[in-house]
Amino acid sequence: MILVTGATGLVGGHLLWHLLNQYDRVIALKRESSNILPISKIFSFYTDRPEDFLQRIEWRTADINDRAALDNVLKDVDEIYHCAAVVSLNKGSKELMDTNVEGTRNMVESALKANIAKFCYVSSIAACGFASGTAMIDEQTPWSENEHKTMYALSKYNAEQEVWAGIKNGLNAVIVNPGVILGFSGTESGSSLIFSQVRKGLIFYTLGGSGYVDVRDVVRAMMQLMENNIFAQRFVLVGENLSNKDIVTMMADGFGKPRPFINVTKELLLVIGFVAEILGKVFRFNSLIDRSFARSATNRSYYSSKKIVSLLNFRFTPIAQCIKDVCRCMADKKSPC
After folding, report:
1. Burial of 143 per CB tally in 10 Å (0-12, 13-18, 19+)
2. How far apart are CA 122 and CA 71, in angstroms?
3. In whole angstroms, what is the distance from residue 95 CA to residue 301 CA?
4. Residues pairing with 214 in the sheet
5. Using CA atoms, how far apart are residues 21 and 48, in angstroms rounded to an integer?
6. Does residue 88 surpass a pLDDT of 90?
7. 307 CB contacts (<8 Å, ≥6 apart)?
């Protein structure tokens, strides 16, 4: 049996759909407080009868920070896709490290104890190295901590080290490093929040940019790597390197909204982030914008997926097509996309 963690998230939800098109049943891990409604919405992206697939999911309840519970839910599991993570540029270090690092360590140790045959970990390009200018970042780019590396990036890098430790102890594991993942989720979090904001009307943009990838490509790559028994390696998954302005412009076009036309500079964002941090400390709240967010939103990096393209002859979906599909689905939720 296959088990998916983070099943209610963007990657986990789309992964469940693709797995259920290949297998009769799939086990999905959730916490007591998890909301599984997004899964139905994600399945509606593909079909007008999501319930036919939802009933084939075997839900098991456990927190990845509860080792005893994990050991129990891994009974009769052969393969694990570990997608669970906190994805944020401004979360406090404790929440990020508890879920992303400690949670991954628990998953790895439980997988070793249960003699899991295959393990796929969803990391991020945030855990890759840094290169200046237009130099391409790939799997071999050395990691270095600098002002562009957020606490989220550090948490994903440290989580990867837990997987590598598991590999040294005999775990058949593979790591994928997706870029900014775009896709329909039915929620307003992560990259889906960008779609939502543009749909409402967004006139601002920043000059930063990054590597972007369709969520469908992420799950296809994961499944192909597992099916081909490719382990003890990591793979950058980026369809295209695009500017933030490119992305929000394509979204605006997809929704028939005016394109953004006001550039928010790095200097301005840093000032706003600094003020927001002070206010957050005074009034005890987590600001949506801080200086880390400002640096990330205005940084431009370029990534290479040559490794997986060469190994599996993998072909990525054009980002313009991905955005078009999501915009169409959000505009007409009554029909499958």
Report:
1. middle
2. 21
3. 26
4. 182
5. 15
6. no
7. 138, 139, 235, 236
pLDDT tens digit sequence for 18-73:
999 999 999 999 988 888 888 999 999 999 999 999 999 999 999 999 999 999 99
* In contact, 148 and 296? CB cutoff 8 Å: yes
Task: Give the residue carrying structure tokens 């957050």.
Answer: 280
What's at 153, amino acid-wise? Answer: A
Q: Going edge to edge, which strands form the sheet with 118-122? A: 57-61, 26-30, 2-5, 79-82, 118-122, 173-178, 234-237
* DSSP codes of every residue in 48-66: S-THHHHTTEEEEE--TT-
Cα–Cα–Cα angle for 172, 177, 178, nearest 5°? 130
Residue with tokens 């519970």: 69
Q: What percent of the chain has pLDDT over 70?
A: 86
Closest Cα partner for 321 from 216, 186, 180, 211? Answer: 216
Q: Which residues make Cβ contacts (< 8 Å) with residue 199, sequence separation at least 6? A: 251, 255, 257, 327, 330
SS3 239: coil
Supply the pLDDT for residue 269. 58
Q: List, as one string, the DSSP characters of 103-149.
A: HHHHHHHHHHHTT-SEEEEE--GGGS----TTPEE-TTSPP---TT-
- The Cα–Cα gap between 286 and 209 comes to 25
pLDDT exceeds 60 at position 320: yes
Q: Is residue 320 exposed (0-12), middle (13-18) or buried (19+ Cβ within 10 Å)?
A: middle
In the block, tokens 């709240």 appear at 285
